[in-house]
Amino acid sequence: MKFGIISFAHMHAHAYAQALMNIPGHTLVGIADTDSERGNQVANQYNTKYFAKYEDLLSQDIDAVFVCSPNAHHHEHTVAAVRAGKHVLCEKPIATTLEDAAAMVTEAKKAGVILRTAFPMRHSDPVIRLKSIVESGAIGDVIGIAGTNRGKMPPGWFLDKELAGGGAVMDHTVHVADLIRWILGTEFSRVYAEADTLLHDVNIDDCGMLVMELASGAIASLDPSWSRPENFPTWGDVTMEVIGTKGVVSVDAFNQKGTVYISGPKRQDIVYHAWGNNSDLAMIHAFIAALEGEENQGASGLDGLRATEVALAAYESIRTNAAVDLPLQPI
Amino acid sequence: MIETALLGAGMMGRTHSQAHKGLKNARIKWVFDRDLDRAQQLANQHDGAQATDDLNQVLDDPSVQAVDICLPTDLHKEFTLKAAAAGKHVFSEKPVARTLDDARAMITACRDAGVKFMVGHVLRFFHEYTAARDVVLSGQIGEAKVIRATRAGEFPVWSADNWYADYDRSGGPIVDLIIHDIDFIRWTFGEVKRVYARCRDHYALVTMRLHSGAICHVEGSWAHPPGTPFTTKLEVAGTEGLYWTDNQSSIPVRIMRVEDGNFRYETDSPFPADPYALELEHFYDCIINGTEPLVSGEDALRTLEVVLAAYESSKTGQPVDVKGAVV
């Protein structure tokens, strides 16, 4: 298969490019980026062609593209790609508005191509194990889930509301919201959130807390805060504790790690060295398998929309200081 | 040496009985319980202590200076009022009462009787929590902005008449369990402005906004399966750093052995001192020295107000503003 990448604005583009390098039989035909310095540099790094305009990349003989532009541009890039007949794996959150997300889903369907949302945590081995334990009935019916997706403060456009669509809540709600929907096989019905700019000198929400309900009656909470200090031993976490009527199962998805102690003349650092499965690589494998006709557990465009809806409902809750009922918009 | 009466010989009564054994400033004179056998079992462990199922025997004994109330929450008011009227100093387990008005009546009765009144928010005496507070107050991690606390374990099946399961009496895990964390948060980070909570099948998820602007998440569970180790966690994200502690990963002693052919895995975490003993010793010191207890009735009233607001939110599904209750 032949692939293109639209924009390296999101650093996950590197993980996807590296995954392609590690999967034999596939080609990265080119990358498009409005930042020519970054574009030329990564084209050189991955031994591929640079296109200043994404339209020129889309006119190449490629099967699919990864869209890793700033969130607000996902809609434009994805719609153009699917209209050009390319399958798309779109970085999360799928869009910054429900209208954009719905249009992406509709256009992909119309074009008869596959649209997937980049939710690599569906491909994390510990998370998959947790899902199978829940589905086995070992903990009975699920009562509640307490989740976290905390991180360090990201740089650049992530802090620009126009481009990112929001701060920590937009950035870090969707992964675990998707996992909760996926694991429970039910939709969110209510969202309450607190969020604010409290930890960093930025003009966007950098911490928050969501408390939610699902149609099954289960309750859930999620901490999407950028609350890991700069020198935290790793980028952040994805954790869930699932409480059932007969038991509890928890996952700390990145806990398979070693600890590296680095000493130097002026400072001492502790860094985690992860050795668990590479969920980005597993997600790219699953995307390729889907292009080859295999049904698998990857997240659809609609899954991306539903997860984004939770983040948007959280912002609505923060604005109104009230719990917000879902769905915000019937699809 | 203060002569005291332990009122209630259930789980918490047994914990307090044990804590009294090492105290140098007080000793148990009476153990009261409606179940005389149960009271006798505890009284037997204290030299010179007597058991009774008649509260008047305790209240009529002029040598008794204080009572230690370890009874179900909805009985705290009745016993506090009777003890205060008899001129006894009152220590009451948390929650101070099931309603704000009951708490107010207890505070007023003790004030009018001129007796000390202290409420058992024992986390203020737990080393793990005072250590966290010390780090926060030292300024090492800057201003605290995101606070997460967890208190989780099995359902307390041991309660008399299963009163914990009756939320009209206990308030469930929000009012009875995570009241500990919410009191600690108030004590260390300041007053609560707004609270939102959901609770299902003895599992509670609470988020709070403090007047400082900080955002809190408090998880409370009586929904964990029987046998689950009691688990507590605390994380404080500040403007200049992060503090994290939890009672499971800090366990220093792990025992693996075989008993009757079955493998057993046990853990132990010996504390520098029994927090319950520190708490009670402080209460008796306040009586002896005429000083004010670390957890006053007014303080406990404010904590109760927050957990009742959370309880209300868990019923209505909407956030509740905390007004700042006064007596």
Could you characterize what this model shows?
The complex is a heterodimer of chains A (331) and B (327). With 331 residues, chain A is α/β, with parallel strands linked by helices. Chain A is built from 10 helices and 16 strands. A 7-stranded mixed sheet of chain A has the order 3-2-1-4-5-6-15, sandwiched between helices. Chain B is an alpha/beta fold and 327 residues long. Helix content of chain B is 35%, strand content 30%. The longest helix of chain B is centred in the last third of the chain and has 20 residues. In chain B, 48% of the residues are buried. The mean pLDDT of chain B is 96. Chains A and B meet through strand 7, strand 8, strand 9 and strand 10 of A and strand 7, strand 8, strand 9 and strand 10 of B.
Compact summary:
In chain A, 35% of the residues lie in helices and 25% in strands. By secondary structure, chain A is of the alpha/beta class. The two termini of chain A are 32 Å apart.
Descriptive tags:
heterodimer; A: 331 residues; alpha/beta; seven-stranded mixed beta sheet; 16 strands; globular; B: 327 residues; six-stranded parallel beta sheet; 35% helix
